């Protein structure tokens, strides 16, 4: 039965039909700038042998402040009060910040400018109490039994509604922002700060989710001030993109104002490059593009940015659960990151093994303890085995000590900055997206 035929069999008042919405942000959104800076500094620290980091970034207008803690490696003999600029002497932090701002197009001398940005760093050495808890008081900092660097709960989610095993709402919202990232390389009127939001009508079938239709597409994009000078570009692109659509022709565009031309340009780009592979379920989607009107002032000039404020974008778009801990700026001893990656790995493995169609995994850790203290599984009623049986399978197949996770998922070598923009999950060529072959007792 086709999707169209299936939809026709449903009653719109069916209690199993519901709407769900996810959002995403672009590379130049202030919070994502902060994530990128934190992860880039983390990578630079790890490269020179610093072993443990928790780096936070705040950005507003043309000012960036870095703060946090580092430990291990070349920092062994540094005390918190001996040199407050020790990290700046080891790493060119200002250049890291400048490179990220430059890559995101922030080069306006009147606003945020990579060339003149003010950067301040206030990073201290990691607390000796935390250090001892992580290292178990051992002298050798390379010990294989390093413990969790904090307490906390982490979640991993997976759903078979897309090939990425991710919610369609989040995949579409992310693709919209990726589209803007690609378009801004070609069209000078687009900026890297953008936000998207996608609402999908779902049918819940015995706990599994079936996307029925895309209901609403929302996109806000920071743009150049003088859109009038780009009207010829708008006209050319609109005519080109609509040339194969016999249902709609845009031969007379002179009556449209600048903002409406931009909206039409973006709508056609969305239909061509994002929704084309979901044409059946998106043909009746409603569009709200630049709903606030002008978006001439954007990026850090309009809003402050802070590391870790986009945890739902970084996770599953509101599906599953969130442990609340951010990922960026944290090395593998921080279970906020390591545990979340492991939980996703487990979720992907369970679905690929055919044990369920949808699953949410919770892991819990305690500072100073090596192993996970609890595992929770919820298959939403889609499991071929009970949730308690799946918990036993997880314990049998996954070593969830932080060091073991780091080795299995290559977290001691990976470049963390790679994941600070376009998400940590549902990506190709990532270790935690590759299912583990599970050993289990057959009934």
Automatic annotation (TrEMBL):
<dbReference type="InterPro" id="IPR022629">
    <property type="entry name" value="S-AdoMet_synt_central"/>
</dbReference>
<feature type="domain" description="S-adenosylmethionine synthetase N-terminal">
    <location>
        <begin position="18"/>
        <end position="127"/>
    </location>
</feature>
<dbReference type="InterPro" id="IPR022636">
    <property type="entry name" value="S-AdoMet_synthetase_sfam"/>
</dbReference>
<comment type="similarity">
    <text>Belongs to the AdoMet synthase family.</text>
</comment>
<dbReference type="InterPro" id="IPR002133">
    <property type="entry name" value="S-AdoMet_synthetase"/>
</dbReference>
<feature type="domain" description="S-adenosylmethionine synthetase central">
    <location>
        <begin position="146"/>
        <end position="240"/>
    </location>
</feature>
<dbReference type="GO" id="GO:0046872">
    <property type="term" value="F:metal ion binding"/>
</dbReference>
<dbReference type="GO" id="GO:0006556">
    <property type="term" value="P:S-adenosylmethionine biosynthetic process"/>
</dbReference>
<keyword id="KW-0630">Potassium</keyword>
<dbReference type="GO" id="GO:0006555">
    <property type="term" value="P:methionine metabolic process"/>
</dbReference>
<dbReference type="InterPro" id="IPR022630">
    <property type="entry name" value="S-AdoMet_synt_C"/>
</dbReference>
<keyword id="KW-0479">Metal-binding</keyword>
<dbReference type="InterPro" id="IPR022628">
    <property type="entry name" value="S-AdoMet_synt_N"/>
</dbReference>
<comment type="pathway">
    <text>Amino-acid biosynthesis; S-adenosyl-L-methionine biosynthesis; S-adenosyl-L-methionine from L-methionine: step 1/1.</text>
</comment>
<protein>
    <recommendedName>
        <fullName>methionine adenosyltransferase</fullName>
        <ecNumber>2.5.1.6</ecNumber>
    </recommendedName>
</protein>
<dbReference type="Pfam" id="PF00438">
    <property type="entry name" value="S-AdoMet_synt_N"/>
</dbReference>
<dbReference type="Pfam" id="PF02773">
    <property type="entry name" value="S-AdoMet_synt_C"/>
</dbReference>
<dbReference type="Pfam" id="PF02772">
    <property type="entry name" value="S-AdoMet_synt_M"/>
</dbReference>
<dbReference type="GO" id="GO:0006730">
    <property type="term" value="P:one-carbon metabolic process"/>
</dbReference>
<feature type="domain" description="S-adenosylmethionine synthetase C-terminal">
    <location>
        <begin position="297"/>
        <end position="433"/>
    </location>
</feature>
<dbReference type="GO" id="GO:0004478">
    <property type="term" value="F:methionine adenosyltransferase activity"/>
</dbReference>
<keyword id="KW-0067">ATP-binding</keyword>
<keyword id="KW-0808">Transferase</keyword>
<dbReference type="InterPro" id="IPR022631">
    <property type="entry name" value="ADOMET_SYNTHASE_CS"/>
</dbReference>
<keyword id="KW-0460">Magnesium</keyword>
<keyword id="KW-0554">One-carbon metabolism</keyword>
<dbReference type="GO" id="GO:0005524">
    <property type="term" value="F:ATP binding"/>
</dbReference>
<keyword id="KW-0547">Nucleotide-binding</keyword>
């Amino acid at each position: 039965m086709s999707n169209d035929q299936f939809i026709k069999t449903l009653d719109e008042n069916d209690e199993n039909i519901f709407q769900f919405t996810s959002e995403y942000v672009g590379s130049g959104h202030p919070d994502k700038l902060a994530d990128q800076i934190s992860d880039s500094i983390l990578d630079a620290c790890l490269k020179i042998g610093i072993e443990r980091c928790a780096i936070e970034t705040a950005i507003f207008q043309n000012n960036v402040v870095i703060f946090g803690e580092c430990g291990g490696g070349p920092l062994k003999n540094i005390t918190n009060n001996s040199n407050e600029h020790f990290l700046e002497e080891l790493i060119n932090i200002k250049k890291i910040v400048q490179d990220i701002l430059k890559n995101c197009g922030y080069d306006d001398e009147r606003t945020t400018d990579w060339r003149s940005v003010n950067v301040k760093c206030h990073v201290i050495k990691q607390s000796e109490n935390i250090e001892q808890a992580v290292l178990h008081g051992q002298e050798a900092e390379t010990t294989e039994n390093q413990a969790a660097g904090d307490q906390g709960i982490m979640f991993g989610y997976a759903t078979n509604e897309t090939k990425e095993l991710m919610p369609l709402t989040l995949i579409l919202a992310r693709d919209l922002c990726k589209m803007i990232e690609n378009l801004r390389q070609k069209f000078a009127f687009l900026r890297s700060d953008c936000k998207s939001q996608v609402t999908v009508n779902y049918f819940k079938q015995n706990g599994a989710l079936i996307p029925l239709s895309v209901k609403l597409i929302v996109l806000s994009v920071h743009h150049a001030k003088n859109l009038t000078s780009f009207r010829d570009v708008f006209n050319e692109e609109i005519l080109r993109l609509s040339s194969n659509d016999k249902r709609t022709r845009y031969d007379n565009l002179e009556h449209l104002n600048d903002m409406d031309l931009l909206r039409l340009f973006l709508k056609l780009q969305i239909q061509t490059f994002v929704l084309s592979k979901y044409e059946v379920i998106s043909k009746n989607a409603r569009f709200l593009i630049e709903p606030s009107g002008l978006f001439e002032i954007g990026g850090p000039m309009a809003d402050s940015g802070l590391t870790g404020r986009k945890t739902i974008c970084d996770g599953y778009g509101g599906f599953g659960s969130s442990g609340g801990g951010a990922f960026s700026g944290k090395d593998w001893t921080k279970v906020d990151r390591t545990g979340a990656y492991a939980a996703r790995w487990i979720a992907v493995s369970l679905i690929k093994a055919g044990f369920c169609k949808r699953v949410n995994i919770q892991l819990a850790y305690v500072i100073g303890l090596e192993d996970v203290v609890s595992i929770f599984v919820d298959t939403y009623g889609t499991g071929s085995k009970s949730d308690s049986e799946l918990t036993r399978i997880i314990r049998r197949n996954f070593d969830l000590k932080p060091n073991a996770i780091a080795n299995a998922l290559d977290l001691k070598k990976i470049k963390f900055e790679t994941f600070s923009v376009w998400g940590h999950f549902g990506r190709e060529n990532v270790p935690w997206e590759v299912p583990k072959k599970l050993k289990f007792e057959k009934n």
